[in-house]
Amino acid sequence: MADRSSTHEITHYINVENAKIVAFLMVVGFVMYHSIIHLKYGNDSCKWLLSDGRFPGYNTWQPYGCMTHKYTKSDARMCMHYISYWGGRNHIVFLGDSRIRQLYFHFINLISNEEVKKFKAHRDVHFQDNKINARVDFLWHPMVNISMYNVYKNWLISEPSARPNLVITSSASWSIKLSNGSKEALNNFEVNLTYILPFVNKLKDSTKILWLLQDPVVEEKLNANRSAITNEQIDYYNKVSLDILENSAATLWSSSRLVAQGMRKESPDGLHISKSALELDIQLLVNMYCNNDMNHNDGTCCNTPEATTPLQIVTASVFLVCIVSAIALYIYKRRLRRNGLKNRTAAENGQRNGQATDLKENTTESATEVMSSLAKLGIIMFYFYLCDRTNFFMKENKYYTHVNFFLPFAYVMILGFFFTENTERTALLHRDQTDEWKGWMQLVILIYHLTGASKILPIYMHIRVLVSSYLFLTGFGHFTYFWNKGEYGLFRFCQVLFRLNLLVVLLCFVMNRPYQFYYFVPLVSYWFVIMYITMAIWPHLTKASAEVNSFHYLYMIIKFIILITCISLFYLSEVFFEKVFLTRPFKALFVTSDDSIHEWRFRWQLDRYSVVYGMLFAFGYQMLLKYKIVSDNLTTDLFSKPLSYIVTGTGLVGLLGYTIFACFCRNKPECNEFHSYLTFIPIVSYIFLRNVPGWLRTRYSSFFAWFGRISLELFITQYHIWLAADTHGVLVLIPSYPVLNVIITSFIFICISHEISRVTGVLVKYAVPSDWKSLLRNIILFTAVLLPVGIVNGMFY
């Protein structure tokens, strides 16, 4: 009994509210941890890029704490062109021995339209491309001696415009080889480098000098002439370089050494690194040089965070006022309770004053509830901003492998099946089942985004079906509600749109992103409006009206035909599509930050029929119920046994058929072209499999259903506090421990999503009241707040 009671006491404290407290304390702890890191080591992501990293997989390098962009030839040339266009210089010098020359030629081959191969050994090499205003030189100075000293001296006495703006240099192997690894040569290296140091420091205003620590060698591959070049000798020279240059104006590049060490077996001769390692090194170099000018979303290394906008400052001020007000109201409420104002006033002044006090306390309760909810949103929004608009927390690139995707997928599915239980609901697509469906779909989509699985075409196509399923359920659910309830009032319309858009509108203000950036909510909101207009426009059609007049079924079919025709016309005429959606003031809702409507058209046409499929399925199902072809009020199969077997088999064939199509489809554009016409097949097939057998229809996974109830918040919040860099990377709270980091960030992310869902539910009661006068007042207030924002951002001109 004692064990049972202690177990019950432990489980009593394991709940979502306590989990959110733990998550909050963890966030505070990580803020303190990263503050200490920044105070001790600084928050220069260039330093992270050039100093440390790891191999998450074969031939893939992940710098410590920041993300690298994969530069193609066109990207690199565009970078050079931009730097020149904005008044910068592209004069880069590689100074050193044959190891530095390796880097030089790989760099040239990245930025040049023609591959450069021919050169004379032990000679300088020069490259110039006037189209991108780039000059790149290799200067053969294999030892730190008087010749290298003179190079720096000549740069210093020359005009700043004649100096290179970037120098990549290093030396050691020749000194070791010629001196047979003598101590005297090491001392000479130290003395000569010390003589060069003043020039390095004086050139800092015009020239960035990058000293490359020597890569390890593969001793067993070295020939007899190079046998003196051992890793022990390399370490001696690197130690000297570190001691002299660590506190100088030069930047030490040590991550290249880690790259070479991880790929040392691929070295062709033991001294020079492999082509794969060279490519990784050049990517690090170009990211350092270009990221801040190119501003790629997936290139956070050496990239300055966005400047804060006036709207972000105003939003922060409003949230700060809400936080202060919430604290003040909380103190006021405690004082009221402590003084016992309510009971004392009622006893002394009679019932009328008591009623006035009740009204006062109710008003205080409402104000406290609203302000505390807004204060919580303000704190959460600050965390969003800290995660994805600053370099305070670290970020890493996504890395896809089949194991990375399918292993968490298997874990999630097993957990979901483990928490299966019975439900009293028996209707097709009942609430528990749709919550479950949304839940497991959302978890799979999260895994898909975390691992960067979009590059795998079959996975991409199946995820497209999951997104279409959300829209299908939107059509099914809202049509069923409108058909059965016949409620087309402004209250429900505003309530749905407020719940959908509150978080996204706040994020647009806080994160400085257009509404279309969070594409899913604009898509669902748009189709809800279209569906509402279709159903609400005269004649109003409901289940009750159709039972009185059978022609209403025909009217509903005509409405469907008109709706499908309008959608098809928009799809077939791109000019008409753009003319409608680029009309002000609605244009701001459909364009991205570069004023392009391409993203909206792509998303719209991809799922242009998904909501209609859901509405048609719901309408057909209502017809089957009316004529008693199906019966869903019992736990038995929907159809007779033979027909149930046929329908279930059809569902299996439909799912298998779509999977075969996704595996054999050749490319994304071709697959996307067929998607809108075929997506109903796997969706309806899944519904058949899940609902026709009575024993499946009356069971559901409470694990998946819990996530399904916060699926919208999970979909949106992942952008900034689970993923990073606007979904292009992964948020890192615990560097160098990727699995533990995903577990911790997932826990915090889920708790925040649940709290946002709860707060939205509280605010919707006050923002969208059932009284039409109060509702109209709030609409006017919202318009008055949003209108100036729209005017400032050019919404009307």
UniProtKB/TrEMBL annotation:
List where Polar residues composition bias occurs. Answer: 346-356
Cas1p 10 TM acyl transferase domain: which residues?
Answer: 294-779
Return the protein name: Cas1p 10 TM acyl transferase domain-containing protein
GO cellular component annotations, sorted alphabetically? Golgi apparatus; membrane
Under the heading InterPro entries, the entry gives:
Cas1_AcylTrans_dom
Q: Does the keyword Transmembrane apply?
A: yes
Species this protein is from:
Patella caerulea (Rayed Mediterranean limpet)
Per the record, the similarity remark reads: Belongs to the PC-esterase family. CASD1 subfamily.
